[in-house]
Design brief:
The complex is a heterodimer of chains A (254) and B (327). With 254 residues, chain A is an alpha/beta fold. In chain A, 37% of the residues lie in helices and 28% in strands. In chain A, a hairpin with a 2-residue loop joins strand 1 (4-15) and strand 2 (18-29). The two termini of chain A are 36 Å apart. With 327 residues, chain B is mostly helical. In chain B, 73% of the residues lie in helices and 3% in strands. Chain B has 14 helices and 2 strands. The radius of gyration of chain B is 29 Å and the shape is flat. Classes of the chains: A alpha/beta (254), B mainly alpha (327). At the A-B interface, helix 2, strand 8, helix 3 and helix 5 of A face helix 10 and helix 11 of B.
Chain lengths: 254, 327
Amino acid sequence: MTAALLSIRGLYKCFGPLQVLNGVDLDVARGEVTCIIGPSGSGKSTLLRTVNQLEEVDQGRIYLDGELIGYRARANRLTPISERELARQRTNIGMVFQSFNLFPHMTVLENILEAPVGVLCRPREEVTREAEALLEKVGLAEKRDAYPRHLSGGQQQRVAIARALAMRPKLMLFDEPTSALDPELVGDVLDVMKDLAKGGLTMVVVTHEIGFAREAADTVVFMDCGVVMESAPPDQLIGAPVHERTRAFLSKVL
Amino acid sequence: MNRESPGPVPSIEGPSAADAELELRVGRRQHPGWWFATAAVLVMAAVIVNVLVTNPNVGWDHVADYFFSTDILKGLLRTIELTVLAMVIGIAIGVVVAVMRLSPIPVLSGVSWIYIWFFRGTPLLVQIIFWYNLAALFPVLSIGIPFGGPTIVSGDSNVLITPFVAAVLGLGLNEGAYMSEIVRGGIQSVDHGQTEAATALGMTRGRTMRRIVLPQAMRVIIPPTGNQVISMLKSSSLVSVTSLPELLYSAQLIYNANFLTIPLLIVASIWYLIVTSVLSWGQYYVERHYARGSARSLPLTPPQKLRRRLVQGRARWEARTRQGGRA
């Protein structure tokens, strides 16, 4: 079936007088990697953060696997769901932040176990085995008992990816995952993400790494001024952009 | 590399390497002023100690007599009791008021603001005397439905508010205002990204506060709380004005009878010093526990510094004697 795993319809959001999202529509198919590119202030990070309701929207709907996120449609109104219910929906959506946000008072392993054991109430031994496998996958098996501050930025980000994956999310969101990294550490993180993409994980990645988008994305989305200007496979969007603004942006970053 | 073939390049192992390293040792900068300052301070210290030891008015024999007297020890116990109870009340109120202060509900944050404003803005001594005289304001205390509803329990204020209760209330409520600011500072010191990461992992607000924010806030909350405990131990002497026989008032009772004012004040002071020293020592270990994952910012304690200095000093001395022996 080709139904989209994530559907965003008519999303509007403003911060005070600033209209950040101006009617965004976006579909992400199951198992696909979507990269969102665009100039800063174009609303791409905000869009990502609305998907798991870290930002509330003013108008519009977000569906994950057919389920409306954050709200319940009742008659003609959308009423917010309870905090507990929203927390449950968020367990299906993994998120990786620009600034890693590992919990500094916990070891790498504790960071990964915290939510699957504490929130999903899965048995600790089982999750530990899984966590070790995940650490193996991101190349940090020997760091399981280290504290985050003993890791480089690239290692921290790979732990953050493992932590999100341990929840077995349906969808993974990456918010500029390599923007805070030293240039020589970017490659390790991108390699892990490429592996995940090959493994069939559904991913939405806000990034400035055009090379990564070209290589790993199924769809590249160009956003500007709070709307999706253009959306196409990478060859087409990066190779032969239709829109004038896409061309202007790409000429600056390539 | 071994002893038979000493080369110019020092290796990590081998006695010749150690020798080579010694020859390259950087000399220490000389500070003649330091010696002068040290000598001046030592002379002054000697003068003070001499005056204290030889002045017969100090009455060291009386200090020794009363140091372990039953009344003094009972007073000490009462002081510790007051400190613990007032701190428990203070911390409990502090956490509640801090969370209220950070609440988006205006009435809650407003009420906590007024609480802090009032209890920080009036002298502790006045508050203690106020609680002690509560019976003059409310002769009868009762619990029941307010605004003319039925009363469930009631009692005479003079019976309920004993000097001890008045002291605990006065110290605890005042402490709550200070603790709430400390707790608020701690909560606000935790990076917002931590809350976002926890939220994104599906944690509820309560769980995020308990598992992620508060443990990290503790690192910021604990050091000033330790200071508050030490400060509370000393502030508790203020309740001596309500004739509550804690450590200071116990000493006062004795010297009012025998006029050994100075010896008994020294007895009380030494006990205060002993307890505050024990508290500072305990504070260090609690701080270390909560510094997990960020130990970089942890300062050395005085005993550790002393040990390090001794070790370094001995190493230098050994190096010098070895060098001297060779020359």
